[in-house]
Amino acid sequence: MADGWAALQHDSESGREPVRKPARRRALTAVVVLVVAVLVVLSGAFLAEYITRGVVEDTVAAAAESNLPSNVDGTVDVDIAGDWVLLQLLSGRMEQVTLTSDDLSFDSIPVEKMTVTALGVPIDLKAAVEDIDATVTLDEPALNELLTLPDNDAAITLGDGTIGYEGSTSVFGVPIGYVVTADLSPDGTDLLVTPQGAEVTTAAGALDLSGIVDRVVSEPVRLCLADKLPVGVSISSIEVENGVATLSLAASDVTLSDSSLSSLGECPA
Predict the structure, then answer these.
(1) Which of 72, 76, 243, 245 could form a cystine bridge with 106, CB 3.0-4.6 A?
(2) pLDDT recorded at residue 225
(3) For residues 156 and 154, what is the distance between their CA atoms, to the nearest angstrom?
(4) Per DSSP, what are the bridge partners of residue 248?
(5) Is 165 within 8 Å of 151 (Cβ atoms)?
(6) Containing domain of residue 157, as a range?
């Protein structure tokens, strides 16, 4: 201690300042400590976000499965888009929720694939979702389970952008068969089957069968699907390609509660 005091006295007498830690080094140390603290906080936030996102996605999937309409069965996977699920939860509404399933069925009709994208999803299931877009992909047997042409038990075949089906009628007591090629188009909760051409498949000798073809292709056939869709859901498009038919569905301002999803529309008697 005496030696240190003597050194200070010596420095003072000689006009030299005591050795001090440079200010620049102290500032650098403070910056490093601050950066490390920020990184620790961010790491914790990202970890919390990762855990929260997984928990919320599992919770939403379980809620979606438990609230499926009574005529729908299957498992659902959920993906929540957007940054910071924690902040979305605090806001009371999730930006975008996507539900997918590869094993869904409705009315025992197997669905090859289903994707539902919901925008503006409230945490409270009693509140309305802003917009919902869904696609349902059906193979040929499933489409035949879904659609039944009036007075026609023949199977529908899927072509490239069109469908085909067989029919029959009679002329002077002679049964006449024909094959129709048609387009499918949506109209609210209905599908319109619009014949594009027909070919008679029965040899009828001298009978003029042109009137049969004209009658078959004269007007579209309307198929109602309202009784298979929740109220408020409409068909926005249908595409036929590669042996499958993909229905696109849309809805706005609908709730995802069990009672809402189980409330199906009605078709005219």
Answers:
(1) 72
(2) 92
(3) 7
(4) 135, 237
(5) no
(6) 1-269
